[in-house]
Amino acid sequence: MKIAILIVFAYLLGSIPSGIWIGKFFFKKDIRNFGSGNSGTTNTFRVLGKAAGLIVFAMDLLKGTLATCLPIIFHLDVNPLWFGLIAVIGHTLPVFADFKGGKAVATSAGMILGYSPLFFFYSLVFFLIVLYLSSMVSVASIFSAIFVTLSSIALPYIWPAILPTHNWLLTLVCFLLTCYIIYRHKENIQRIKAGTENRVSFGLNKKEK
């Protein structure tokens, strides 16, 4: 019974539409009507600004982290990744937003943070490097998802200080989320090919399109 209740809680936690609520409550805007129409962090940055974007990112990240930590908090003998995955499903199919959610990147990262902080920061470094080199959040998100999946297999053998043991569930979850993230970025991929994808400005003569 406790596990069932926590599964529902993890889903509801993931279903919190951070970008939509922040936009409506503080800016009187539904961000789904602006920019890319997505309710996630990147569109929040573009539509509502850096402060709102950072808050939404933190909320979406911590949803995955808290959900993943539920078995630890309540002393359950269950792989925490299951609860993190449920939160990601909630984020992508939120009951509070007509089952139309984000692209799962931030909440998936939060799941990794809850499962292994070292693995999270290792992956974050890769994400930031790709983001800086490409200036495109979509490119960084896709390549980071692939990188995390491959690292979940290789790290226990080449760098066990980061990820001591190989967990097949971690690899499976990462692989499934990578497929989903690539699918959700299909329009971004088309814009990348066309050379019209939005870019991030780092203040070094890189202008956002």
From TrEMBL:
Signal peptide: none annotated. Pathway: Lipid metabolism; phospholipid metabolism. It holds the Pfam family G3P_acyltransf. Keywords: Acyltransferase, Cell membrane, Lipid biosynthesis, Lipid metabolism, Membrane, Phospholipid biosynthesis, Phospholipid metabolism, Transferase, Transmembrane, Transmembrane helix. InterPro entries: G3P_acylTferase_PlsY. Its EC number is 2.3.1.275. It is a multi-pass membrane protein. HAMAP family: PlsY (MF_01043). NCBIfam families: glycerol-3-phosphate 1-O-acyltransferase PlsY. Catalyzes the transfer of an acyl group from acyl-phosphate (acyl-PO(4)) to glycerol-3-phosphate (G3P) to form lysophosphatidic acid (LPA). This enzyme utilizes acyl-phosphate as fatty acyl donor, but not acyl-CoA or acyl-ACP. Belongs to the PlsY family. This is Glycerol-3-phosphate acyltransferase. It comes from Enterococcus viikkiensis.
